[in-house]
Amino acid sequence: MSDPLLQRPKEQLTAFQRWELNSFDEAEKPGTENIAAEALLASKESAAIQLQNLEKKTYDESYAAGLAAGHAAGMQQAQSEIAKLQTLMSNLQIALTQVDEQLAQSLLDLSLEIAQKMVVGVLHIEPEIILKIISTAISSLPHFNQNAHLILHPTDADLVRRQMGDELAHAGWKIFTDPKIESGGCRVETSHSNIDATNPARWQSIVESIGQDKSWLKTPN
Q1: Which of 39, 56, 72, 153 is 20 to 30 A from 19 via CA?
Q2: Does 155 map to a domain?
């Protein structure tokens, strides 16, 4: 049996009857709500996927930015360490150069000291060397002066008197002694010139010729 409400025009129905009719029509369309729910679910899933993609993109970009920043920081630190190493190597080279210079100077000082002791030893072993020294001092004078004074250590003076006494006396030279003059050296004094041929003076002349300033080590007579 058909419902009499369905056979009557809607304009002849009361408001309540029209509401019942509409409710009945909607009841006959049970799939509408399911379609809407599925659409809402699909939209939600799509939004979730988009959010997930956005999060991944943001993470990737942040990771890449972090790598770049970390690389830059690492390069800066490496350059700083390289600069420190270069400074260290430069300072080390300077230190090595200074050590070489100090070692060379020490060796030179030692050589001069050994040479000085050898000279002193030779003077004691061969006292006749004083005769050559006197001859050299005399030849350094502008001309052979009369009344010149030859000043020697007492020991050397005795030797010179024996070996050259007559020659010097004939030339008008006089021999004087001075215990302060180290054996092996002498001084010559004239009215016009003075010759310092003492050991310290001759030694100083030698060391100055090689750019050094090492005093003569005075030894006991």
Answers
A1: 39
A2: yes
- Which DSSP string corresponds to 28-56? T-THHHHHHHHHHHHHHHHHHHHHHHHHH
Domain residues for 152? 126-209
The span from the CA of 160 to the CA of 35, in Å, is 142
Quick: pLDDT tens for 162-176: 888 888 888 788 999
- Are 7 and 21 in contact, with CB atoms under 8 Å apart? no
Task: Say if 170 falls within a structural domain.
Answer: yes
Q: What is the pTM of this model?
A: 0.45
Q: What pLDDT, in 10s, does the model give residues 2-29?
A: 555 445 555 554 554 555 555 545 544 4
Do the domain assignments include residue 77? no
Could you tell me the CA-to-CA distances from 56 to 8, 52, 61, 133 in Å, in that order? 62, 6, 8, 102
Tally of domains in the chain: 1
Asked if residue 175 is part of any domain, the answer here is yes
Strand ranges inside the chain, DSSP E: 149-152, 174-177, 186-189, 194-197
Amino acid at 146: Q
Q: Residues in the chain, how many?
A: 221
CATH code of the domain in which 137 resides: 3.30.2320.30
Q: How many CB atoms lie within 10 A of CB 181?
A: 22
